[in-house]
Amino acid sequence: MANVATHPQTAPTAPTAPAALTAAEIAALALSLAHLGTGPQATTARRALHILLDAAPHDDVVTTTLATLTTPLDASTSDRARVVAAAITEHRVVRLCYGDAGANVTIREVEPVTCLVHRDHWYLVGWCRMRRGVRAFRFDRILAVESTGLLARHRRADRYLPFQRRQAG
């Protein structure tokens, strides 16, 4: 017998197309996948997410993002993602050593809100205390990250996702 759970009072129905995921839901899945690392559960979860997101046609940006999301992170990036994920869950401020695109290095305190994947890169999205605004930090440019232990303000992730398509009308 296969490992399939069924409810005895429901008749099998034709499969329906999955509902579209919101940007906040995809960000939450990305963060969860970062926690899983490269173990067997991670492989299964990435495959399931790929199937779920592959049900609808995508543009090039979504296709590239999906490929990045379903590729395991390297060990050092995964370690940084775990620190960030714990800080998001615990609503704690993190201190980043961050190198920007111009190779300028700054130390910043950030109130992390969520993580997301866009095209080829993972990002930490949060309130940057130095810049006094919402910023997205590429994980590959985060040189070091640590929790400060300070409490961060509770912020809704759906208000901090910079790559969302805007609703028309």
How would you characterize this protein structure?
Helix content is 33%, strand content 27%. It is α+β, with helices and mostly antiparallel strands and 169 residues long. The protein has a five-stranded antiparallel β-sheet. Strand 1 (92-99) and strand 2 form a beta hairpin. Helix 1 (23-36) packs across helix 4 (75-90).
Please specify the SSE layout and strand pairing.
Layout: H1 23-36, H2 40-54, H3 60-69, H4 75-90, E1 92-99, E2 105-118, E3 121-128, E4 133-138, E5 142-151
Antiparallel strand pairs: 1-2, 1-5, 2-3, 3-4
Helix pairs in contact: 1-4
How many strands, what sense, and barrel or not for the largest sheet? Answer: 5 strands, antiparallel
Strand content: 25-35%
* Major β-sheet strand ordering: 4-3-2-1-5
What's the Cα radius of gyration? 18 Å
Distance between the termini: 52 Å
Mean pLDDT: 76
Structure described in brief:
The protein contains four helices and five strands.
Which characteristics define this entry?
alpha+beta; disordered N terminus; 4 helices; globular; 5-stranded antiparallel beta sheet
